């Protein structure tokens, strides 16, 4: 009986962890595949929030041709394609910019402030390699903090569900972010990142 119990338990876990294939080749994963820890100290915009105007300007990201005058962002060193950075630091103009080889101009949503069901268009991925490997793109959006997931300090995000097809990709996350009033607070929320592989459009929807 004990051996049968452990066998059934192992089979159940394999079923839960294995992706399900839907008609049309769409892959659905239900388990928590990855956890993201996002910290204020890694925010590329950290040096450019000295005023309200500067902070608001940081919500709209220009797409430019990257030259030697732009600095690499150390925390995003692994997010490159053919040795080219996806984001860079424009010290001269005190801003963060996107590489126009890979992205259109971008806008930064604050998912903690979106209303339930509200959809926010981030911009477009212009290089098909970005959505050929959507996990790489989603991870970049999180760790670059192009998608804002906390108010003050940090956020812990869990990937709960993925759907991947030839035409689109989506990933659903739930998370908790930490902020302070007179005391420490934690707030939970969930959201979905969607990538239209036909147009390159990236969007975020509050769940």
Query: Globular, elongated, flat, extended or rod-shaped: what is the shape?
Result: globular
Distance from first to last alpha carbon? 43 Å
Count of helical segments? 4
* Largest sheet properties: 8 strands, antiparallel
The residue ranges in which pLDDT falls below 50 over 5 or more consecutive positions are 1-32
Percent range for β-strand residues: 35-45%
Secondary-structure element series: HEEEHEEEEEEEEHHEEEE
Considering DSSP H and I runs of 4 or more, what fraction of the residues is helical? 10-25%
Which radius of gyration do the C-alpha atoms yield? 19 Å
Q: Would you tell me the structural class of the helices and strands?
A: alpha+beta
Please tell me the overall pLDDT: 86
Secondary structure tally: strands: 15
Descriptive labels:
eight-stranded antiparallel β-sheet, alpha+beta, single chain, globular, 15 strands, disordered N terminus, 18% helix, 207 residues
Any overview of this molecule?
The protein contains four helices and 15 strands. By secondary structure, the protein is of the alpha+beta class. The strands form four sheets. Strands 1, 2, 3, 11, 12, 13, 14 and 15 form an eight-stranded antiparallel beta sheet that branches. Strands 5-9-8 form a three-stranded mixed beta sheet, with no helix packed on it. Strands 4-10 form a two-stranded antiparallel sheet. Strand 12 and strand 13 form a beta hairpin. 26% of the residues are buried. Mean pLDDT is 86; it is low at 1-32.
Write the layout of secondary structure elements.
Elements lengths: L1 H16 L2 E3 L3 E4 L5 E5 L12 H6 L2 E2 L1 E2 L15 E2 L2 E2 L1 E4 L4 E5 L6 E2 L11 E6 L3 H5 L1 H10 L10 E11 L3 E13 L3 E13 L4 E6 L1
Parallel strand pairs: 5-9
Antiparallel strand pairs: 1-2, 2-12, 3-12, 4-10, 6-7, 8-9, 11-15, 12-13, 13-14, 14-15
């Amino acid at each position: 009986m004990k051996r049968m119990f452990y066998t059934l338990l192992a089979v159940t876990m394999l079923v839960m962890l294995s992706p399900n294939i839907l008609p049309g080749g769409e892959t659905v994963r239900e388990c928590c595949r990855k956890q993201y820890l996002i910290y204020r100290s890694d925010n590329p915009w950290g040096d450019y929030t000295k005023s309200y105007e500067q902070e608001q300007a940081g919500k709209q990201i220009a797409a430019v041709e990257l030259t030697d005058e732009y600095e690499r962002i150390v925390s995003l060193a692994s997010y490159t394609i053919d040795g080219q950075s996806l984001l860079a630091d424009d010290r001269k103009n005190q801003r963060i910019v996107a590489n126009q080889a890979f992205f259109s101009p971008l806008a930064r949503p604050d998912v903690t402030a979106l209303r339930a069901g509200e959809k926010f268009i981030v911009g477009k991925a212009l290089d098909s390699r970005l959505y050929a490997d959507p996990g790489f793109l989603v991870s970049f959006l999180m760790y670059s903090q192009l998608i804002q997931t906390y108010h003050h300090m940090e956020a812990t995000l869990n990937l709960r569900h993925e759907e991947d097809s030839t035409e689109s990709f989506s990933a659903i996350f739930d998370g908790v972010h930490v902020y302070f009033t007179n005391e420490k607070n934690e707030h939970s929320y969930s959201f979905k990142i969607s990538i239209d592989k036909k147009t390159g459009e990236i969007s975020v929807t509050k769940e």
